[in-house]
Amino acid sequence: MRLVRFGACGSEHPGIVDAAGRLRSLVGVIGDHKGEALSSEGTERIRNMPADRFPLVDGAPRLGPPIAGIGKIIGVGLNYRDHAKECGLPLPGEPTLFLKATSALAGPHDPIMIPRGAQCVDWEVELGVVIGVGGVYIEQEKAAGYIAGYCVGIDVSERDFQFNRGGQGFKGKSADSFAPLGPWLVTRDEIVDPHRLTLRLSVNDIERQHGTTADMIFSVPQLVAYASQFMSLEPGDVILTGTPAGVGMGRDPKIYLRPGDEVSATIDGLGTQRHAVVAAVTPGRPAAAIPD
Length: 292
Known about the structure:
Elements: E1 2-6, E2 13-17, E3 23-25, H1 40-47, E4 73-77, H2 81-87, E5 96-100, E6 105-106, E7 112-114, E8 121-122, E9 125-131, E10 147-154, E11 157-158, H3 159-164, H4 170-173, E12 179-180, E13 185-187, E14 198-203, E15 206-212, H5 220-227, E16 238-240, E17 262-267, E18 271-279
């Protein structure tokens, strides 16, 4: 199944994309794509209902991140052999984990915003793994059962903030719009092998990344099990599993995003994201009212 959320930012509704590619509403059927609804039992209930029971959605509404209630976004650094090579770094002995702020979440067609003072905004297309069942100290052999499904993600990164602003790469990973997800969540049963998917990313219609998840150093089950050794995983958590070669930082000369650019990212079977790149001249979210 392809699960989506549609509507204005912060007011998205749950939906599904039917076999003909039409958007249908799940309002009144489930509260949202979060929590127990992401478990195998939760998705099976939707799968067993006739799709024509769900009303069609008129027009082409905005799509938001395909899951709600995301507690954390876990990034994995240097998880592709070709990316390690382009960076001139040895293959890691263990997964390198970092967190992206959930305030960085964006929809699959929302603008990518260049934050104030940024000069080195880079792109990284990544396979997103969405947790469907919570757990801690998960065994690698059982890890697949904890996964709800997969989606396209882009780990947008400001390299100067990441490396030159006092350490802690979190600073370069968490600006508003730096974690677009979607267009939809494809449930686990529809992806036969997540390690045989092609990833592509283009900037201004020029292909910059073209890789395969077969080049991962650490597999999806390894990453789920490993992350769970350090923190509880909860339904809706997202693991961004690393990026193949072709990032702007790895080029000579280096290339970074500028306002006016357009970015598109595709993963086999998971859909395509398209983003305009804009300057963040106003806050990404309305400021909270100042109390009297």
